[in-house]
Amino acid sequence: MNRPQLKKIAELAYRTMFRQAPDLCEIQETFYGWVVFLASNKGRVVVKFSREIGRLAKEVEGLERLAKVLPCKVPEVLFFGREDGYSYIVLEWVEGVSAHQLPTDDKAIAAFRESYLNILLSLHEQQAPQGFEVGSGEYVPSFLDAFEQWMEPVCRYVLSSGSPFSKELKASFTSLWEHKSELLNPMSQHSSLIHDDCHLGNVLFDPKTYQVSAVLDPCDVGFKHREMDLFHLYDVRPELELVEHYCQQHPLDDGFEARRWFFSLWDDAKHSRNMGWYDEAWLQDKVDKYQRFFS
Prior knowledge:
- Helix content is 44%, strand content 20%.
- This is Phosphotransferase.
């Protein structure tokens, strides 16, 4: 993606909205693309571009679904555009500080943790009586069956001759796939609406109260299983012990210690398939940690 061209497109979108040029125009690279922050005395917006075809449409749908149920701010999608071959979305600019910058004092941590866990618990209480969502309006009652439908294309990618995965990692993912029923069948068969990328880098907080001010950047929102959200909480600031405190209010089924790494590995494989990302040492380290809990 051409950085100067993306800034130009974002500035054009801003001019279309506010009839003037922005005083601020800052662009940042993200895992899936680019984000441009624009502001003037007329207003502030965020413009997002994605490298993955179809990702922006998924984000729009996910934000709209989350906005209906979350007791905190979710950015509103102002419009969906396309210019010079690039699709983009324009979002409202929401106030707050990224939660990965949360202060380390006990008061801040306790206030934020209570606020965010209440939000996640509220989200996960949203359930579909039909079961787990595998497509638009399609559900299956079995989590194992749903997982197979979600991840079978990812497994094919990992094991294909064209994937970057090493022979050793392909063998590890083959074993993961073969043992999935042992890991997943003991789980609760109650679905939950999930954010699907709820680590603290996608959360903002109020620097005065340390309460959550907004939740951002969902991935594949849908009625899945709450554990597919919870493993993300270890990704950023694990010392906050969010999962441990979550479990005090909603205990998890036995075996989560292994499933945490199982879900994380398949999530990484999904991102590899989507974006071509690959980190051999990173993945092998997770395999090693998974194997400590599952043998």
